[in-house]
Amino acid sequence: MHRVTAMKNIVYIATSLDGYIADRDGGLDWLHSIPNPDHSDFGWAEFMAGVDALVMGRTTFETVCGFDCDWPYNKPVFVLSNTLTEIPENYQDKAELVSGALPEIINTLNKRGFENLYIDGGKTVQSFLTEDLIDDLIITQIPVLLGGGSRLFSDLPAHQAYELVNSEVLLGAMIKNHYRRVR
């Protein structure tokens, strides 16, 4: 019997205690403030195995391009931008530019077989939440106060309810919560 799985848009992200995803300078060094001697990925590989593609904003894409490492994704990456006209030459085989209304973009990607999408980047996540297009939020809270920077959440046009699916303490310091949208 063929089992049909629901299409999902999933956020997997870390925040500071005060709800920021990057510091005032766009920095992410604080993400490594808790020692991780065993180099645990905290479920990242398992999560990535369950998604078909990533959808990220231009700023997040440019941040990832600036990392001092090989391209970190083995899945298709779609970059949302109304201002970027093309993907830089070094990344054209790694990412595709998309623009337009989010429901249309999601519908197009779903029709192309990308059903479980990892939604990444502050403004992108906020836009998806505003359109009520997020199904799961997986948020790891790191015990640091940044006092400013890029927020994960912004104002929403309406209340959204989520249920807690799972909560775990990582390294005795961080809390990873998985929430599912109640519709």
Kindly describe this structure.
With 183 residues, the chain is an alpha/beta fold. It has a single domain (8-30, 38-181), classed as 3-Layer(aba) Sandwich (Dihydrofolate Reductase, subunit A), CATH 3.40.430.10. It has four helices and ten strands; from the N terminus they run E-E-H-E-H-E-E-H-E-H-E-E-E-E. It has an eight-stranded mixed sheet with strand order 5-4-3-6-1-7-10-9. It has a two-stranded antiparallel ribbon with strand order 2-8. A hairpin with a 3-residue loop joins strand 9 (162-170) and strand 10. The longest helix is centred in the middle third of the chain and has 10 residues, at 102-111. The mean pLDDT is 93.
The named CATH superfamily: Dihydrofolate Reductase, subunit A
Order of helices and strands: EEHEHEEHEHEEEE
C-alpha Rg, in Å?
16 Å
- The CATH topology corresponds to Dihydrofolate Reductase, subunit A
User: What order do the strands of the largest sheet run in, or round the barrel if closed?
Assistant: 5-4-3-6-1-7-10-9
Indicate the low-confidence ranges by residue numbers: none
Proportion in β-strands: 25-35%
Number of strands: 10
Individual helix count: 4
The portion of residues assigned to helices is 10-25%
Question: Would you tell me the overall average pLDDT?
Answer: 93
Instruction: Give me the CATH architecture, please.
Output: 3-Layer(aba) Sandwich
What structural class results from the helix and strand content? alpha/beta
Quick one: CATH class? Alpha Beta
What count of domains describes the coordinates?
1
Shape, principal axes of CA atoms: globular
Distance, first to last CA: 27 Å
The largest pleated sheet is described as: 8 strands, mixed
